[in-house]
Structures
1.
Amino acid sequence: MEWLPKGWTPKLVAVDIDGTLTDANKRLHVGAIEALRDLEAAGIPVVICTGNTRPIAYGLWRFIGLSGPLVCENGGVLWYPNGDVVLRAEGKEAEAACRWLALRLPGIDADGIATNTWRESEWCLKTGEDMEAIQAELSNSAWSHLTVLRTGFAIHVMDPCLSKGQGLAQVLKRLDIAPEDVLAVGDAPNDLSMFDLVGWSVAVGGAFPELEAVASVCSPEPHGATFPPLSEAILAAKKAEG
Ligand SMILES: [Mg+2]
């Protein structure tokens, strides 16, 4: 298995959480955590790039022991270890749009999913809601500029400028690291923009076919089991570099 291009070592590794560090049941792969620690110990920072909220990503960052910034809410929220927070969209606006929607479409639960409590740049409705009706109402409203996107666990009402790729690009600029020097690992369509941006991309085993189609390599290992051999290959490349 050739994990990396010959003679190339990433300067930074960007990783998704759900389905990438975890299995399909959202349980973290313990070997993946150890592999990320090995990368950090070798001076390769790990940046979590997730649709999850900042408190959830921060908890992982803290307890794994990472050093890189965080890209949360699919690029809506950036967090830096010095405490700086950049909100790339206003979640209150998306919430107001959803509360208005619930008046127009009785039966919609405007409170949405539980993690809305911590959401800062978007609002998420439950995944079973009538997405076509939501889109139709919004397109004729004061919130017609917002995008409606369904993922496996929610319907996201969000600013169309939000993507993991755009969020990661902003972080890399501040770190002064070229996107070509970055390796990204993911499993789902919300990782596509991140794969477009970086120099090398790895789709974990069990990834969505549309991500596998554009990945530089597809892991033969399922989800988080990708990380031990991938990390080993990165560390070997770094050692060979001298
Ligand atoms: Mg994922």
Note: The chain has a mean pLDDT of 95.
2.
Amino acid sequence: MGVGGQKDLADSPAYTVYTDNDAPKTGESVSCTVIGTIETPYKRMEDCPNRHNKQEFLPCTIRLGAEFAPGLAGFEVGGKALVLYWFHRARRDMIQLPAREGVRDKPVGVFSLRTPPRPNPIAAQTVEILAVRDGELDVVGLDCLDGTPLLDIKRTKR
Ligand SMILES: C[S@@+](CC[C@H](N)C(=O)[O-])C[C@H]1O[C@@H](n2cnc3c(N)ncnc32)[C@H](O)[C@@H]1O
């Protein structure tokens, strides 16, 4: 166990800390750890809210793995958080979306959009915290499929 009774995460090769000399370069891969799972009422892609279908945001539950649960200390009901998650069903081989009749008249770069297909399909959404339990947060504001992997949570003011 490491400082504060936490599991010593640094023992895992997935938690490499680089130096200035070996910082990962463009095109190389870095390792991320899934810290939990997001449970949502959205079972199909078309159930997920987005700016086109304007579906309502429904309450969802963020469930952390036991070793990451202590990281929720400090969250309070009514607070806000930025949630980062991994769009596991998204294509990763697209840098532009092609022109499509009735949608866009020329190709557009994925970095100018919030669309799931992108080299690193990281999604970000600000949520309101409805409930805090041991290793769990109930939140509203997420737009992902049930079972979407959780990468990080950051407290935010708005
Ligand atoms: C337009 S994206 C926006 C994502 C996030 N709010 C952001 O701004 O980074 C939201 C859409 O991604 C799709 N989606 C949801 N969960 C997904 C998953 N696990 N893998 C791939 N696509 C997903 C759904 O169609 C949903 O409406």
Note: The chain is about 0% helix and 30% strand.
